[in-house]
Amino acid sequence: MITLGITGSFADLAGTFMPDVPEWLFHDSAAALVVDGTVVAAVEEERLNRLKHSNLFPASAAKACLELAGVRAQDVDDVAFFFGEDYADLEVGHEYLKFPDVPVLSARELLTTRLTEALGREFQHGDVHFTKHHRAHAFGSFADSGFDSALAVVIDGNGEAEGVSVFDCADGGMKLLHSYPDQHSLGHLYLALLPFLGFRRFDEYKVMGLAPYGDPSVYRDCFRPYYALLDDGGYTMNSGAVVEHLLHAGFAPRRRGEPIRQQDSDLAAALQATLEEVERHLLSHWARQTGAGRLCLSGGVAHNSTANGRVLQWGLFDEVFVHPASHDAGASAGAAQHRQAEVTGGRRGKGLVNAFLGPDLGGRDVVRAELAGWRAFVDVEEIAPGEEARYAASAVASGQVVGWAHGRSEFGPRALGHRSILADPRDAGSRDRVNAMIKKREGFRPFAPAVLAESAREVFDLTATKARLDFMGCVVDVRPEWREKLPAVTHVDGSARVQTVHRETNPVMWELIDGFRAATDVPVVLNTSFNNFAEPIVQSVGDVLRCLVTTTLDLAVVPGHAVRRKPGFRAVLHTADVVLHPATRLREVATADGSVTRVVSFRTQGAKPVAVSEPVFGLLRAAASGPTSAAAHGLPADEETLDALLLLWEHRVVDFRVR
Question: Could you tell me which residue ranges the Carbamoyltransferase domain spans (predicted)?
């Protein structure tokens, strides 16, 4: 049986469904292909359309899944969507109220229309099946865990009307034990407080990284009156009241881009402590109530790796599985797995071996052909077949920061060694350089260590609770004797979000780390996602090269090749054709003093605008109509122009092509 799982809204870049679909509506679009219960391909739409957290319909992702599996659209038996049909229609209906000129279609009609457009096969209404959101999360995490039975707990913003759901899972199926209403959502609590800290939606992980710098006791009394821990694992949470309290108490919200204050760290610490207290309360109850020895965690809050590490320390369960794609993208696979279980009577496929479920980068010949179009920007060195890991390990050991890409991409938000930036964990300067010069992100944010599985217990306190740590889902303590040796990956509180690398499931990354160990006696490398501040994790060779050229990475290692920026590559920007991203929007904004500010951004809510000069704005307007360059448009080849062009490229609102 072949089922295509879908998450995402029904909009496209052209605004065909609606002109301004909010970013929260069915966010983190993805497609997954499930064959006889096993996920064989899965990819987020953002990796292909290059818009972070894209909620546009995953047309490209669906096509990619079919291509990866060698499956024709005609071979797909059915399609599973990651929310219930009534809820999907309700959400779509709310959007139609904003746009009275848009024809009204149901979620089922929109799904069949979009699928037909994307895959070239006429999908019928009966081909589409809807799965309750928390069921999709829970069944996917249980199926991929490989456990015979487990307690599956989903914690997120909300499902249909739930903020937390608890399921009893076994090979015969799953039974809902309890749901906690979304008005008490822990995910919404985190979301409500992001603006106080100068962050926005999808920045929850920043709060988690900031919390260890703070004292939770400073602001705990701002939370305590507004939540309660009840009998039988129940709780209440009034996020709105917490917000009102902080405003009345005079907490001045930090503005985006302003320095982090101690009060911001203290508030983040109190928020994290509150989340962990409530989570421990409800998990403790269900562990006692059911006697379950195994736990599966999913939902967006399951990406809070600090809280996951606490779950291991609490010792409530013998074994814990945190799904590598616990956010809504992962529900594409879960919905498809759940649909197949409905048909087969609960039968599951094989557990998840690794998270490398996305499109392949290509072998050395494919990469060589792609590199040919980039010779104006990069220098290329051939690497002997099979020597890429050794080459990269040597570069990292010598202090270089390396972009590392090969094979099929990861499914989920963590780079696990197929699309990674790697650096020396022994040098605190590695952390600071990657934060400031490559990621251009806040300096307080930690980086993860990737460690040889054989050495993990020597370096880290892995607790008595068993867990699969190869998906970078849990924060654990670095052993005291290793903290000074690993300053680039040890957080301020002595912890680290560890990734164990197994030779059997991640062989090339294992070989690389082992090469670094042979050179340094340290079986650990710094591992972070291969991208810059403005883009999702790189997917293709072209994405790799854009990231290399527009950051201070020392080199990128791809199959058969080491690639470096050409000295003086910036001059090429003057004569290269400017190509606008399909979602780029140009705006002229009148200010109060009568002047005009010209800005460029993506046509997505919350997109950060880039201010440009009138001449550069004119160039972009011309480029929107057809190929042109700064030189052809009459702009000078001075530093100001080159700086402006490079800035736009860094923000990914434009690309450059050399004829």
Answer: 26-336
Strands 402-405 and 584-590, by their bridges, are unpaired
Which residue shows structure tokens 């829970």? 138
Side-chain half-sphere exposure of 338, counting CA atoms within 13 A: 30
Residues with Cβ within 8 Å of residue 424, at least 6 apart in sequence? 396, 397, 399, 430, 488, 520, 525, 526
Q: Output the six-digit token pair for 229.
A: 């821990």
Residue 131 CA to its chain's centroid (Å): 23
Residue 136 · residue 334 · CB < 8 Å = yes
Continuous segment of H or E residues that includes residue 403: strand 402-405
pLDDT of residue 231: 93
Q: pLDDT, tens digit, for every residue of 190-219?
A: 999 999 999 998 889 899 999 999 999 999
Whole-angstrom Cα distance, residue 630 to residue 648? 13
pTM here is 0.96
pLDDT in tens, 31-68: 999 999 999 999 999 999 999 999 999 999 999 999 99
Given phi > 0 = left and psi -120 to 50 = alpha, else beta, which region is 28? left
Q: Is 467 exposed, middle or buried (0-12, 13-18, 19+ CB in 10 A)?
A: buried
* Consecutive H or E run containing 154: strand 149-155
3-state class of 36 per DSSP? Answer: coil
**Cβ-proximal residues to 264 (8 Å cutoff; 6+ apart), any chain:** 196, 197, 198, 210, 214, 254
DSSP string, 434-447: IIIIII---TT---
For tokens 């307690």, the residue is: 151
User: Which amino acid, one-letter code, is at 229?
Assistant: L
Tokens of 410: 């990861």
Tell me, rounded to whole angstroms, the distance of Cα 41 from its chain centroid.
17
- Three-state SS for 427? coil
Q: What does the pLDDT average to over 133-151?
A: 96
Question: Distance from CA of residue 413 to its chain's centroid?
Answer: 3
Residue 30 has pLDDT above 80, yes or no: yes
Quickly list DSSP for 585-636. Answer: EEEEEE-TTS-EEEEEEESSTTPPPEEE-HHHHHHHHHHTTS--BTTTTT--
